[in-house]
Amino acid sequence: MTRIRPNYEDRVSAEKPEETIYERWVGGLLRYIDEEKNMRIGVYVCHCGGNISEVVDVKKVAALMGEQADVTLARDYEHMCSEAGQKIVLDDIAEHNLDRIVIAACSPQFHEKTFRATLVKAGLNPYMLEIANIREQCSWPHFDYPDYATLKAKDLTNIAVAKVRLDEPLGSKAIPIGKRVLVIGGGIAGIQASLDLGDAGFQVYLVEKEPSIGGKMAQLSRTFPTEDCSACILSPKMADVPANSNITMLTNSEVVSINGYVGNFEATIHEKPRYVDVDKCVTCRVCEEKCPVKVPDEFQEGMKNRKAIYVPFDFAVPYRHLIDESVCLRLTKGGEVCGLCQKVCPHDAVDFNQQPRTHEIVVDTIIVATGYDVFDARLKKAYGFGKYENVINGLQMERIISCDAEGKPLRDIGKRIAFIQCVGSRDEQVGNEYCSRICCMYATKLSQLLKRADPSREVYVFYTDLRSFGKGFEEYYKRAQDTGVKFVRGRPAELTEDRKTKKITIKVEDTLSRQMLESEFDLVVLSTGMVPSQGTESISKILRLNKSPDGFLREAHPKFKPVDTLQEGVFVAGTVQGPKDIPDTVAQASAAASRAIRLMNQGELEAEPITAQINEDLCGACGTCVSVCPYDALKLVEKEEKKVAECNEVLCKGCGSCAGACPTGAAQQKHFKTTMIRAMLDAALGVDATPGKEA
Amino acid sequence: MNNDDNYGNNVPQIVAFCCNWCSYAGADAAGTSRLQTKPHFRIIRTMCSSRVEPDLIMEAFRKGAWGVLILGCHPGDCHYKNGNYKTDRRIRLLRKTLAQFGIEPERLRLDWVSASEGARFTRIVDETIEAVQKLGPLNLAVPCEVIHE
Ligand code: FES
Fold first, then answer.
1. Class assignment of domain A612-670?
2. Model's pTM, two decimal places?
3. What distance lies between CA A450 and its chain's CA centroid?
4. ipTM of the complex
5. How far apart are CA A429 and CA A337, in angstroms?
6. Where are the domains of chain A?
7. With a 6 A CB cut-off, is B128 part of the ligand 1 pocket?
8. Binding site membership of B79 for ligand 1 (Cβ less than 6 Å)
9. Tens-digit pLDDT profile for residues A228-250
């Protein structure tokens, strides 16, 4: 059904209005609608190949719409979204001088973009379009009521017409975007992302809070399932970081604040003093020998000691000394106390007067890779971690059998060893419902390494479910069984220690054979899971990132935007987003780097055109909008001796909270102005709101 | 909205404000899975539930809506960080005021629907329509003009 009204004289002026607040218009705004002249709306009702037309009488809807005020033409067509359908719209716009379009079809989530592009092609502003969703909201949920569905389709289309009448052309600012990236966290995720970006010619700032990059991977013995020595595959990558001229590495440093937005993030970074001049130090280790202070070594998970002046580990980057200010005698007591390191240093590198430094940098995008923390097994009281000397965690076991023969902590591990799985994972008692994904495989790895090193050992793994889901994992698990590791399905309730021998007794029900087992072990390894790191907590506050219920950072979309966040220009990589193993972490880091590159290579970005807008005449500067804005986009400013709210259109994401809260109606949301929503309400409730007719 | 359909006169008229990111998508999900609902509601899409000012809700009642439904993302899931919390506070206040105008507070419902919860959307809409049907059309105790100004 097509109904064409007589062609009025040209209602569309050919020029752009002179006073434009926009620096650049979204493509297509070549014609500007002159308010004075009548509008010419085109309405198109889609059959959707029967999806709509089998329930809704589309011809009737088109006929009814053709009678509405301002509707120049209304048609129905098989497939509006097809090339042919779009061509009809294009031709009609040209022939009948249409200036606004309504498409009654499927949900706007599918083809709003398609039709906006069609409008741009036809030389119209893309926002002069409304979609009436008569498939998801009519034909599909109401096929039991076909007559009513037709009526409702007409109503929904009518609502769209009411809205399109008031639609205004929108444009947006172009935000320039450069090629600078801040990578937060220098574990394998941060390293991978930085190298990818550095190699691609982007300027990278890599910030790590520890004195060396490397993260948790540096502590591992071997990696599953290939059993590569972790240090051997990681250290060349670590060395590549300072060698890359595009990467600025800031260790011993923390991000304390970030302001701004994509293309212009201003970050403040605090660098703690090392008290050693890294340019003079040659890591001869003379100072270390003389230093009298011994403290537990973090890198060795407290199973060995280090000095107050130390190098974090043998392949640390930067490979330079630093002084731990919390234990150094001189730095804690002051005066002329101790100072031995300074006296013996042959290169005069020790400098007790070093001060913290603050770096202010501006970047365009940010990659968050702050990793994970190991679950604190002390929280699982029944296992006696921290109390029984022969109960250790997985990371400690990694150190004990590390490939570094000289440096590793020496510890007698005995002949009978047990692993307990799911400590801190899949356990509502400790508040972690999720699976940590790595513990099954690292226990499989550690247990068979132990067994292979000494076949006379008896190695048991007590598991809940064994999850060997990755590439080569199931084969690797099979191999562990063949090696002679015994896998027992059951979760021990409690561990007890023999006071004299210090051996640990495990009581557990084998849930497969339904037998109670009780056995004594020389060493028990708790396969501790991952928890969100402390750094994640602070960075989520600084960047206002959302977290999932498990406490890890939430991605923008679990399937299609797994490394994006809802903050534009901020990406996540690695275990900060959830537990994962090394290959997944590296893949995600490269994905985050390429998503960041995709943004930055555009040179400029289109800011959200649907932003807030303040009518300064109505604004009473009450500040309500300022307080509800989640993006700090609104500010009170002094303008011509009057205080008014002002919207920063680059920061504004267009939620409309301010418009919902403004008591005077001064704050409005473009494309969703109160007048527009009122018009939709009128149409929805059958109030005759034809322009000029409203009471 | 037309009252004289084939399904008996005096059918309720519900306006449902849905936020773009979760609840509107939830309504789409209901349609996609062909879940059948009573048809007596009209969805108005806003970007976030926090856009819906009390005035618009009163306006809907003034213009004859039997009930108003506000649907947003689940707490913590708002696409704009915390818009739904603001909505929650606002609607609580408004509900108190409604009674003073002679509008039964049950005519206004705020709920959360995620993009995957088609069944939940259908249930909420049906429940609301039923509840409002019991109450019948709105008989305003206070003249419309007063409400509006
Ligand atoms: S976007 Fe759904 S409630 Fe804010």
1. alpha beta
2. 0.74
3. 38
4. 0.93
5. 49
6. 2-170, 180-272+358-370+533-600, 286-355, 373-531, 612-670
7. no
8. yes
9. 999 999 999 999 999 999 999 99
